[in-house]
Amino acid sequence: MKDNPIKNIVFDLGNVIIDIDVPRAAHSFAKLSGRNPEDVVEMFGTAGLFGQFETGQLDAAGFRNYVRELLQNPDWEDAVVDTAWNSLLLDIPPARIEMIQKLGENYRLFLLSNTSSIHIEAVNTILEKATGVPRLDDLFEKLFLSYEMGVMKPDPAIYEQVLREAGLEAGETLFLDDNENNIIAARALGIQTFHVQPPLTMLDFLQDYVA
């Protein structure tokens, strides 16, 4: 892109790289437990389950045990909980990965995601099956993951940590996310942004950035 000031690109994960359908997880847990999806959403929300897991307050074992406790199914095996939790993860279109690989020739690339250890493991499996790339680490200079950082988007602290640790200038950094609140928070710090919204994908916006 002519006169492009961008030197760094930070990608969200869900609905930017991998397609997701968040309600599917609640429906999966509802089906397993014989409850209504709305009741599961309310129960998990009241307990702050996902927020605790995605900020590292709960590890994978703690998350699974809390799910068993909340849904009163103490005998569920780990794989049962993981499969229901991962059901919200859909497909990774190979064209998106090819775009990221091309961009890596001219830009510093990073991932910033509100996520959990169970999801990252599953995403890596989906990624390798879809594209042959074994891990997200192979695509980015560094992964900034909320469960490791102890903070979630849209808290300004998470963006400040990314800028600080990677040595990035906000005005030279482009951030792509599907959540408007996350975009607003990044923009307030001077980061350039693109709000990924259907029918547009990251591919539509980033074509001009490929040399």
From TrEMBL:
Q: Which domain of life is it from?
A: Bacteria
What InterPro entries does the database record attribute to this sequence? HAD-like_sf, HAD-SF_hydro_IA, HAD_sf, PGP-like_dom2
Q: Return the protein name.
A: Haloacid dehalogenase
Source organism of the structure: Persicitalea jodogahamensis
